[in-house]
């Protein structure tokens, strides 16, 4: 039970209360538990976005992440918040690029924080970078980025301001 709770990113006591029929879990919690078991609901949409789908989003030639793909996934999760927790469960394949591994782990941890879940176990197992990484910029730009970097990314020594990943949800017009 503890291993299942750990993989799903929920408290073991929550799983215990569900098993004892003392609480009715949310659809989101059910999805997390099912995905942690390698299953999914029959009525679940076929193409739930996943951070794992970004494991190959490193642009080798430019030596940087494919920001367009990353932002597209995060935009989709902003439009469909019901998919956020499920998007973090599946572990991406470990890439040859530690920056990419840490970026994906930091994004998953940040989403888990926003949703009130424990970060996924796979993300906690990725060792933080040994030195800071940031997209190129002037010293003033880097200073501003450092101040606006989400804590989970900063802990992983990735300097990317929040607005570069998560767009302002304020509607236009």
Describe what this molecule looks like in 3D.
This protein has two domains: 44 residues, no CATH class; 118 residues, no CATH class. The mean pLDDT is 87. The chain has ten helices and two strands; from the N terminus they run H-H-H-E-E-H-H-H-H-H-H-H. 49% of the residues lie in helices and 2% in strands. A two-stranded antiparallel sheet has the order 1-2. It is elongated and about 55 Å long. Strand 1 and strand 2 form a beta hairpin. The protein has 173 residues and is mainly α. Helix 1 crosses helix 3.
Q: Strand order within the widest sheet? A: 1-2
How would you spell out the order of helices and strands?
Answer: HHHEEHHHHHHH
Radius of gyration over alpha carbons? 17 Å
Chain-averaged pLDDT: 87
- What is the helix tally? 10
Biggest sheet record: 2 strands, antiparallel
Q: How many domain units?
A: 2
Separation of termini?
Answer: 49 Å
**Share in β-strands:** under 5%
Shape: elongated
Structural class computed from helices and strand pairing: mainly alpha
What proportion of the residues is helical, as a percent range?
40-55%
Number of strands: 2
Which residues form runs of ≥5 with pLDDT under 50? none
The oligomerization state is: single chain
């Amino acid at each position: 039970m503890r291993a299942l709770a750990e993989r799903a990113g929920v408290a073991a006591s929550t799983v215990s209360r569900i098993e004892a029929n003392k609480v009715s879990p949310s659809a989101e919690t059910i999805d997390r538990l099912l995905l942690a078991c390698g299953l999914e609901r029959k009525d679940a949409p076929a193409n739930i976005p996943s951070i794992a789908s970004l494991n190959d989003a490193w642009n080798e030639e430019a030596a940087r992440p494919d920001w367009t793909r990353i932002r597209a996934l995060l935009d989709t999760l902003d439009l469909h918040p019901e998919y956020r927790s499920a998007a973090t469960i599946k572990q991406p394949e470990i890439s040859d690029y530690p920056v990419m591994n840490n970026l994906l782990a930091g994004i998953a941890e940040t989403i888990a924080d926003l949703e009130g879940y424990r970060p996924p176990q796979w993300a906690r197992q990725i060792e933080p970078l040994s030195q800071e990484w940031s997209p190129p910029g002037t010293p003033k730009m880097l200073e501003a980025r450092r101040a606006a970097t989400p804590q989970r990314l900063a802990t992983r020594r990735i300097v990317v301001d929040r607005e570069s990943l998560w767009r302002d949800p304020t509607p236009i017009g």
